[in-house]
Protein backbone atom coordinates (compact mmCIF):
# COMPACT_ATOMS: atom_id res chain seq x y z
CA UNK A 1 0.00 0.00 0.00
CA UNK A 2 1.04 3.59 -0.69
CA UNK A 3 0.75 5.12 2.78
CA UNK A 4 -0.09 8.81 3.12
CA UNK A 5 2.44 10.27 5.57
CA UNK A 6 2.00 14.03 5.09
CA UNK A 7 -0.55 16.51 3.77
CA UNK A 8 0.33 20.20 3.31
CA UNK A 9 -1.92 23.08 2.15
CA UNK A 10 0.25 25.74 0.49
CA UNK A 11 -2.36 28.51 0.98
CA UNK A 12 -1.55 30.09 -2.37
CA UNK A 13 -3.80 31.54 -5.06
CA UNK A 14 -3.88 28.16 -6.83
CA UNK A 15 -5.27 26.39 -3.74
CA UNK A 16 -2.39 23.92 -4.07
CA UNK A 17 -2.04 20.93 -1.80
CA UNK A 18 0.82 18.42 -1.54
CA UNK A 19 0.36 14.77 -0.50
CA UNK A 20 3.41 12.67 0.38
CA UNK A 21 3.26 8.86 0.12
CA UNK A 22 5.68 6.12 1.15
CA UNK A 23 6.11 3.17 -1.20
CA UNK A 24 7.45 -0.16 0.13
CA UNK A 25 10.93 -1.27 -0.88
CA UNK A 26 9.42 -4.46 -2.29
CA UNK A 27 8.22 -2.47 -5.29
CA UNK A 28 11.59 -3.01 -7.02
CA UNK A 29 11.24 -6.80 -6.84
CA UNK A 30 10.32 -8.64 -10.00
CA UNK A 31 6.94 -10.10 -8.95
CA UNK A 32 5.81 -7.49 -6.43
CA UNK A 33 2.16 -6.38 -6.72
CA UNK A 34 1.01 -2.95 -7.83
CA UNK A 35 0.60 -0.35 -5.08
CA UNK A 36 -2.56 1.64 -4.31
CA UNK A 37 -3.38 4.33 -1.75
CA UNK A 38 -6.46 4.87 0.35
CA UNK A 39 -8.69 7.81 -0.60
CA UNK A 40 -7.51 11.39 -0.24
CA UNK A 41 -9.57 14.58 -0.46
CA UNK A 42 -8.74 17.59 -2.62
CA UNK A 43 -11.01 20.24 -4.10
CA UNK A 44 -13.98 18.72 -2.22
CA UNK A 45 -13.62 15.45 -4.13
CA UNK A 46 -12.20 12.06 -3.20
CA UNK A 47 -9.22 10.65 -5.11
CA UNK A 48 -6.67 7.86 -4.91
CA UNK A 49 -3.29 7.16 -6.47
CA UNK A 50 -1.83 3.97 -7.89
CA UNK A 51 1.63 2.87 -8.92
CA UNK A 52 1.55 0.22 -11.67
CA UNK A 53 4.60 -1.77 -12.74
CA UNK A 54 5.44 -2.74 -16.27
CA UNK A 55 8.49 -4.70 -17.37
CA UNK A 56 10.88 -1.75 -17.11
CA UNK A 57 8.95 1.17 -15.63
CA UNK A 58 6.83 2.25 -12.72
CA UNK A 59 3.70 4.17 -13.71
CA UNK A 60 1.89 6.74 -11.55
CA UNK A 61 -1.84 7.40 -11.85
CA UNK A 62 -4.44 9.68 -10.26
CA UNK A 63 -8.10 8.60 -10.12
CA UNK A 64 -11.27 10.55 -9.31
CA UNK A 65 -13.53 8.53 -6.99
CA UNK A 66 -16.54 10.86 -6.69
CA UNK A 67 -17.77 11.03 -10.25
CA UNK A 68 -21.32 11.50 -11.53
CA UNK A 69 -22.59 11.82 -15.12
CA UNK A 70 -22.24 15.39 -16.35
CA UNK A 71 -19.56 16.32 -13.79
CA UNK A 72 -16.13 17.46 -14.99
CA UNK A 73 -13.12 18.17 -12.77
CA UNK A 74 -10.22 20.00 -14.39
CA UNK A 75 -7.05 20.04 -12.33
CA UNK A 76 -3.27 20.44 -12.60
CA UNK A 77 -1.28 17.67 -10.93
CA UNK A 78 2.32 16.53 -10.63
CA UNK A 79 4.05 13.38 -9.33
CA UNK A 80 7.59 13.65 -7.93
CA UNK A 81 9.86 10.81 -6.79
CA UNK A 82 12.13 12.30 -4.12
CA UNK A 83 15.83 11.58 -4.42
CA UNK A 84 17.76 10.90 -1.24
CA UNK A 85 20.82 12.93 -2.30
CA UNK A 86 19.43 16.22 -3.62
CA UNK A 87 16.19 17.73 -4.90
CA UNK A 88 17.77 18.47 -8.30
CA UNK A 89 17.89 14.71 -8.87
CA UNK A 90 14.18 14.22 -8.29
CA UNK A 91 12.14 12.55 -11.04
CA UNK A 92 8.79 14.20 -11.84
CA UNK A 93 6.13 14.92 -14.43
CA UNK A 94 3.25 17.39 -14.55
CA UNK A 95 -0.08 17.44 -16.38
CA UNK A 96 -2.09 20.66 -16.68
CA UNK A 97 -5.83 21.17 -17.10
CA UNK A 98 -6.57 17.44 -17.06
CA UNK A 99 -10.27 16.67 -17.39
CA UNK A 100 -11.50 13.95 -15.02
CA UNK A 101 -15.05 12.90 -15.90
CA UNK A 102 -17.35 9.91 -15.98
CA UNK A 103 -15.78 8.71 -19.24
CA UNK A 104 -12.16 9.06 -18.09
CA UNK A 105 -11.66 8.85 -14.34
CA UNK A 106 -7.91 8.10 -14.39
CA UNK A 107 -4.95 10.07 -15.72
CA UNK A 108 -1.25 9.40 -15.35
CA UNK A 109 1.93 8.21 -17.02
CA UNK A 110 3.03 4.60 -17.36
CA UNK A 111 6.73 5.56 -17.67
CA UNK A 112 6.99 7.66 -14.50
CA UNK A 113 10.43 6.22 -13.61
CA UNK A 114 12.55 3.23 -14.57
CA UNK A 115 12.56 0.28 -12.15
CA UNK A 116 16.36 0.10 -12.23
CA UNK A 117 16.64 3.84 -11.59
CA UNK A 118 14.92 3.45 -8.23
CA UNK A 119 17.96 1.59 -6.91
CA UNK A 120 20.76 2.85 -9.12
CA UNK A 121 20.03 6.58 -8.69
CA UNK A 122 19.63 6.45 -4.92
CA UNK A 123 15.90 7.09 -4.55
CA UNK A 124 15.58 4.67 -1.63
CA UNK A 125 15.39 6.50 1.72
CA UNK A 126 17.20 5.42 4.89
CA UNK A 127 14.05 3.60 6.00
CA UNK A 128 14.21 1.43 2.88
CA UNK A 129 11.06 3.05 1.46
CA UNK A 130 10.49 5.47 -1.41
CA UNK A 131 8.88 8.91 -1.06
CA UNK A 132 6.50 10.23 -3.72
CA UNK A 133 4.83 13.65 -3.68
CA UNK A 134 1.57 14.42 -5.43
CA UNK A 135 0.80 18.12 -5.91
CA UNK A 136 -2.70 19.14 -6.99
CA UNK A 137 -3.76 22.68 -7.84
CA UNK A 138 -6.21 24.93 -9.73
CA UNK A 139 -9.21 22.62 -9.64
CA UNK A 140 -12.46 23.60 -11.39
CA UNK A 141 -15.56 21.43 -10.85
CA UNK A 142 -18.39 21.90 -13.36
CA UNK A 143 -21.70 20.08 -13.80
CA UNK A 144 -23.51 20.46 -17.14
CA UNK A 145 -26.95 19.21 -18.09
CA UNK A 146 -29.55 19.97 -20.78
CA UNK A 147 -32.76 20.40 -18.81
CA UNK A 148 -35.75 19.30 -20.90
CA UNK A 149 -38.82 21.55 -21.05
CA UNK A 150 -42.00 19.46 -21.56
CA UNK A 151 -44.11 20.33 -24.60
CA UNK A 152 -47.17 20.48 -22.36
CA UNK A 153 -45.64 23.50 -20.64
CA UNK A 154 -46.79 25.66 -23.55
CA UNK A 155 -50.39 25.05 -22.53
CA UNK A 156 -52.07 27.60 -20.28
CA UNK A 157 -53.59 24.71 -18.34
CA UNK A 158 -50.22 23.14 -17.52
CA UNK A 159 -49.48 22.86 -13.80
CA UNK A 160 -46.43 24.94 -12.98
CA UNK A 161 -43.91 22.44 -11.60
CA UNK A 162 -40.20 22.70 -10.94
CA UNK A 163 -37.76 21.55 -13.56
CA UNK A 164 -34.82 19.87 -11.84
CA UNK A 165 -31.47 18.45 -12.96
CA UNK A 166 -30.26 15.00 -11.86
CA UNK A 167 -28.13 14.84 -8.72
CA UNK A 168 -24.40 15.49 -8.90
CA UNK A 169 -21.70 15.00 -6.27
CA UNK A 170 -19.56 17.70 -4.69
CA UNK A 171 -18.02 17.93 -1.24
CA UNK A 172 -19.45 14.52 -0.22
CA UNK A 173 -22.95 15.95 -0.77
CA UNK A 174 -25.50 15.41 -3.53
CA UNK A 175 -26.81 18.54 -5.28
CA UNK A 176 -29.24 19.58 -7.98
CA UNK A 177 -30.42 22.80 -9.67
CA UNK A 178 -34.09 23.71 -10.04
CA UNK A 179 -35.78 26.16 -12.44
CA UNK A 180 -39.31 27.40 -11.77
CA UNK A 181 -41.51 30.43 -12.28
CA UNK A 182 -41.73 32.57 -9.14
CA UNK A 183 -45.07 33.62 -7.64
CA UNK A 184 -46.96 30.96 -9.57
CA UNK A 185 -46.55 32.67 -12.93
CA UNK A 186 -46.79 30.64 -16.13
CA UNK A 187 -43.56 29.52 -17.84
CA UNK A 188 -44.23 31.87 -20.74
CA UNK A 189 -44.62 34.91 -18.48
CA UNK A 190 -42.48 36.95 -16.15
CA UNK A 191 -39.15 35.71 -14.89
CA UNK A 192 -37.38 32.48 -13.90
CA UNK A 193 -36.14 31.45 -10.47
CA UNK A 194 -32.95 29.36 -10.18
CA UNK A 195 -32.24 27.42 -7.00
CA UNK A 196 -29.38 25.22 -5.75
CA UNK A 197 -30.51 22.27 -3.61
CA UNK A 198 -28.54 20.04 -1.23
CA UNK A 199 -29.96 16.53 -0.83
CA UNK A 200 -27.74 14.85 1.79
CA UNK A 201 -26.24 15.54 5.25
CA UNK A 202 -28.75 17.87 6.84
CA UNK A 203 -27.19 17.86 10.32
CA UNK A 204 -25.19 21.05 9.71
CA UNK A 205 -25.49 24.41 8.06
CA UNK A 206 -23.14 24.83 5.13
CA UNK A 207 -21.50 27.75 3.33
CA UNK A 208 -21.33 27.15 -0.40
CA UNK A 209 -19.70 29.14 -3.21
CA UNK A 210 -20.86 28.54 -6.78
CA UNK A 211 -21.96 30.13 -10.03
CA UNK A 212 -24.62 29.15 -12.55
CA UNK A 213 -24.84 29.76 -16.30
CA UNK A 214 -28.03 29.18 -18.29
CA UNK A 215 -28.78 28.92 -22.00
CA UNK A 216 -26.73 28.41 -25.11
CA UNK A 217 -23.34 30.13 -24.90
CA UNK A 218 -24.11 30.95 -21.25
CA UNK A 219 -26.47 33.83 -22.10
CA UNK A 220 -27.23 34.31 -18.41
CA UNK A 221 -24.50 34.12 -15.74
CA UNK A 222 -24.96 34.67 -12.02
CA UNK A 223 -21.32 35.37 -11.18
CA UNK A 224 -19.94 33.81 -8.02
CA UNK A 225 -22.51 33.45 -5.25
CA UNK A 226 -21.87 32.75 -1.57
CA UNK A 227 -24.83 31.32 0.34
CA UNK A 228 -25.49 29.69 3.69
CA UNK A 229 -27.85 26.75 3.34
CA UNK A 230 -29.83 25.77 6.41
CA UNK A 231 -30.61 22.20 7.49
CA UNK A 232 -33.36 21.99 4.87
CA UNK A 233 -30.63 22.11 2.20
CA UNK A 234 -32.40 24.75 0.10
CA UNK A 235 -30.74 28.00 -0.89
CA UNK A 236 -32.36 31.33 -1.71
CA UNK A 237 -33.64 31.37 -5.30
CA UNK A 238 -32.04 33.70 -7.83
CA UNK A 239 -34.34 35.62 -10.16
CA UNK A 240 -33.47 35.67 -13.87
CA UNK A 241 -35.02 38.39 -16.07
CA UNK A 242 -36.05 35.87 -18.74
CA UNK A 243 -38.64 33.13 -19.10
CA UNK A 244 -37.69 29.49 -19.34
CA UNK A 245 -38.69 29.50 -23.00
CA UNK A 246 -36.47 32.49 -23.70
CA UNK A 247 -33.59 30.62 -22.05
CA UNK A 248 -34.28 27.52 -24.16
CA UNK A 249 -34.32 29.59 -27.38
CA UNK A 250 -36.87 27.28 -28.95
CA UNK A 251 -34.83 24.09 -28.45
CA UNK A 252 -37.09 22.66 -25.71
CA UNK A 253 -34.04 22.29 -23.46
CA UNK A 254 -32.31 24.76 -21.17
CA UNK A 255 -28.54 24.15 -20.90
CA UNK A 256 -27.55 24.43 -17.23
CA UNK A 257 -23.93 24.76 -16.09
CA UNK A 258 -22.97 24.89 -12.40
CA UNK A 259 -19.40 25.64 -11.31
CA UNK A 260 -18.87 24.62 -7.68
CA UNK A 261 -16.04 26.35 -5.81
CA UNK A 262 -16.33 25.27 -2.18
CA UNK A 263 -18.66 23.92 0.48
CA UNK A 264 -17.88 24.13 4.20
CA UNK A 265 -19.92 22.69 7.06
CA UNK A 266 -20.80 25.15 9.82
CA UNK A 267 -21.53 24.44 13.48
CA UNK A 268 -23.25 27.42 15.08
CA UNK A 269 -22.88 27.59 18.87
CA UNK A 270 -23.82 30.17 21.51
CA UNK A 271 -21.72 30.94 24.56
CA UNK A 272 -21.33 33.56 27.29
CA UNK A 273 -17.64 34.40 26.96
CA UNK A 274 -17.71 36.43 30.19
CA UNK A 275 -19.36 33.76 32.30
CA UNK A 276 -16.89 31.31 33.80
CA UNK A 277 -19.49 28.56 34.00
CA UNK A 278 -21.04 29.25 30.56
CA UNK A 279 -18.00 30.00 28.39
CA UNK A 280 -17.95 26.57 26.76
CA UNK A 281 -19.92 25.12 23.87
CA UNK A 282 -20.00 21.63 22.34
CA UNK A 283 -20.36 20.71 18.67
CA UNK A 284 -19.81 17.83 16.24
CA UNK A 285 -18.06 17.57 12.87
CA UNK A 286 -19.40 15.73 9.81
CA UNK A 287 -17.85 12.47 11.05
CA UNK A 288 -19.82 12.86 14.31
CA UNK A 289 -16.65 13.51 16.30
CA UNK A 290 -17.14 15.73 19.37
CA UNK A 291 -15.38 19.07 19.92
CA UNK A 292 -15.54 21.77 22.59
CA UNK A 293 -14.95 25.51 22.13
CA UNK A 294 -13.94 27.57 25.18
CA UNK A 295 -13.90 31.37 25.41
CA UNK A 296 -11.05 33.15 27.19
CA UNK A 297 -11.25 36.76 28.39
CA UNK A 298 -8.17 36.72 30.64
CA UNK A 299 -6.12 38.82 28.18
CA UNK A 300 -6.67 42.18 26.50
CA UNK A 301 -8.37 40.55 23.50
CA UNK A 302 -10.94 37.78 23.24
CA UNK A 303 -9.47 34.38 22.43
CA UNK A 304 -10.73 30.82 22.12
CA UNK A 305 -9.37 27.34 22.74
CA UNK A 306 -10.65 24.39 20.69
CA UNK A 307 -10.53 20.89 22.21
CA UNK A 308 -10.89 17.65 20.26
CA UNK A 309 -13.06 15.82 22.78
CA UNK A 310 -13.06 12.52 20.87
CA UNK A 311 -9.31 12.47 20.26
CA UNK A 312 -9.17 9.02 21.86
CA UNK A 313 -11.27 7.73 18.94
CA UNK A 314 -8.54 8.36 16.34
CA UNK A 315 -7.48 4.87 15.17
CA UNK A 316 -4.06 3.70 16.33
CA UNK A 317 -1.22 4.17 13.86
CA UNK A 318 -3.30 6.76 12.00
CA UNK A 319 -3.20 10.56 11.92
CA UNK A 320 -6.24 12.77 11.42
CA UNK A 321 -5.70 16.04 9.54
CA UNK A 322 -8.29 18.74 10.36
CA UNK A 323 -8.83 22.22 8.90
CA UNK A 324 -11.23 24.78 10.39
CA UNK A 325 -11.93 28.45 10.99
CA UNK A 326 -13.79 30.47 13.63
CA UNK A 327 -16.08 33.47 13.11
CA UNK A 328 -17.63 35.54 15.88
CA UNK A 329 -21.12 36.76 15.00
CA UNK A 330 -22.27 39.92 16.83
CA UNK A 331 -25.66 39.81 18.51
CA UNK A 332 -28.14 42.68 18.29
CA UNK A 333 -26.94 45.66 20.29
CA UNK A 334 -23.48 44.31 21.02
CA UNK A 335 -20.18 45.86 19.93
CA UNK A 336 -17.70 43.54 18.20
CA UNK A 337 -14.53 45.34 17.25
CA UNK A 338 -15.34 48.33 15.04
CA UNK A 339 -17.98 46.59 12.94
CA UNK A 340 -21.37 45.65 14.36
CA UNK A 341 -22.86 44.18 11.19
CA UNK A 342 -20.33 41.60 10.00
CA UNK A 343 -18.83 38.48 11.52
CA UNK A 344 -15.25 38.79 12.79
CA UNK A 345 -12.88 35.94 11.99
CA UNK A 346 -10.13 34.75 14.30
CA UNK A 347 -6.64 35.95 13.42
CA UNK A 348 -4.36 33.83 11.23
CA UNK A 349 -7.11 31.43 10.17
CA UNK A 350 -7.93 29.02 8.68
CA UNK A 351 -6.22 26.62 11.06
CA UNK A 352 -4.87 23.12 10.53
CA UNK A 353 -3.58 20.44 12.87
CA UNK A 354 -2.63 16.77 12.89
CA UNK A 355 -4.24 14.63 15.59
CA UNK A 356 -3.13 11.22 16.86
CA UNK A 357 -4.78 9.03 19.45
CA UNK A 358 -4.24 10.15 23.05
CA UNK A 359 -6.26 10.38 26.24
CA UNK A 360 -6.84 14.14 26.29
CA UNK A 361 -6.37 17.06 23.89
CA UNK A 362 -4.46 20.06 25.27
CA UNK A 363 -6.44 22.41 23.02
CA UNK A 364 -5.63 24.80 20.18
CA UNK A 365 -5.57 28.54 20.96
CA UNK A 366 -7.07 31.05 18.49
CA UNK A 367 -6.76 34.81 19.00
CA UNK A 368 -8.99 37.68 17.83
CA UNK A 369 -8.60 41.45 17.66
CA UNK A 370 -11.79 42.00 19.70
CA UNK A 371 -11.00 43.96 22.91
CA UNK A 372 -12.39 42.23 25.98
CA UNK A 373 -14.00 45.47 27.24
CA UNK A 374 -16.25 45.58 24.12
CA UNK A 375 -17.67 42.13 24.77
CA UNK A 376 -21.02 42.16 26.52
TrEMBL record:
Residues 42-128 form the MATH domain. InterPro entries: MATH/TRAF_dom (IPR002083), TRAF-like (IPR008974). This is MATH domain-containing protein. It comes from Octopus bimaculoides. The lineage of its organism: Eukaryota, Metazoa, Spiralia, Lophotrochozoa, Mollusca.
Amino acid sequence: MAKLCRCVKLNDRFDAQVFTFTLPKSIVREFSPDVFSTEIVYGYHKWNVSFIKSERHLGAYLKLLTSTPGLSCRVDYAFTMLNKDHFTRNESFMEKNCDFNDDKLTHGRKTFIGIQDLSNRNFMQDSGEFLVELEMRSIVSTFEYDLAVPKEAYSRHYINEKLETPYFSFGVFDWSVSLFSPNGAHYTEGKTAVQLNRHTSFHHLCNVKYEIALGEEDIYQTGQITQTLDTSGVGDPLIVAATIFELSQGRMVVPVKVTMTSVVLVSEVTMDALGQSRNRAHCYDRDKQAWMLEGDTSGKHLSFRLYYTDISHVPRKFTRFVCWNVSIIPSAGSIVGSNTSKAVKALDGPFTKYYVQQDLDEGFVMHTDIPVETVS
